[in-house]
Amino acid sequence: MFPSAMKLLSSFSGPRVVKPLCLVIWLLLGWAWTAPAEQVKLDSLQVSGHTYRNVTILGFNTTDAYFTHEGGMANVKLRYLDPKLQKRFNYDPAAAAEAEKQQAAADARYSASVAENMVAQAQQAALAAQKQKAVVASQDSLTDPVSDQSLLGKPAPAIKGEKWLGEKPELNDKWVLVAFWASWSTPCRKYLPELDRLQKKFAGKLAVIGVTSESEAEIENMIEPKIEFASVLDPKGELRAAVGVTSIPYVMLVDREGIVRYQGHPAAITDKHVEGMLAKAAE
Does residue 130 fall inside a structural domain? Predict the structure, then answer.
């Protein structure tokens, strides 16, 4: 299920009221939703010390049952129901535990993404304020300041990690495009084919290297798109921290001498950009 919808519905540790809009979202997403062959109506439903009256079961999935009652709408975990109702809703404890495990993992990834975006937005706001001050200051100056934390024009950190997925590429006398990505990130997955294309078009001159903090199993479980460039696992985020990555996708372009020529969003790395860089270097 999508994390945004999961956050609307939150994680369920017991019975709670679900607003109609949230229930509609759940139904539209269709996460393992099953409607009863015939409506199940109950005079009352007792769950964890709470009593619901005039209950109509709308549907259920692996972990929860959803219903209306005289007070509105609600959902309950199947594990809290009477054994007879559990059987009626095909409750499978093992399947429910696995589903909740997957939900928790998706929640964790979503929370990490939200936190990362908040940090990125705060940094962008601070950078915007800094740039505004620089604009005022540069009116009486021939040069503009660059952040001390920027790697532009500086030697790139060593490209290494815990493990290479596939054969470690030969980087001598090549430009290197280091791409920080994650399999759960939709924007990242959209850019992977473009990175593959750049690798093929500028073969022999440009090496694309992916860097991810995910596990090898998570990368292997990604069905599509398949990546054709080398990737290195950076589970502790050491390379990510050294580069100063604040959000993903993020790339760093390094010339043949190991000097950083660009860092930021991959949208700026176009064919024209790369061709210009390579042509200038060849002069």
Answer: no
Number of domains within the chain? 2
* Residues 266/275, Cβ–Cβ less than 8 Å: no
pLDDT in tens, 217-255: 888 887 788 888 888 898 888 898 898 888 888 999 999
How far are the Cα atoms of 138, 170, 199, 235, 258 from residue 174, in angstroms, in the given order?
A: 36, 8, 12, 26, 9
Domain range spanning residue 175? 163-282
Spatial strand order of the sheet with 250-254 comes to 163-165, 230-233, 206-212, 175-180, 250-254, 260-264
Give 110-168 pLDDT, tens digit per residue: 878 887 887 778 777 776 666 565 445 444 433 344 455 778 888 999 888 888 887 78
Query: What's the length of the chain?
Result: 283
In a domain, 138, yes or no: no
> What is the number of other CB atoms lying within 10 angstroms of the CB of residue 174?
17
From CA 39, how far away is CA 56, in angstroms rounded?
7
- Asked if the structure places residue 157 within a domain, the reply is no
Q: How far separated are the first and last CA of the chain, in Å rounded?
A: 53
Domain check: are 170 and 248 in the same one?
yes
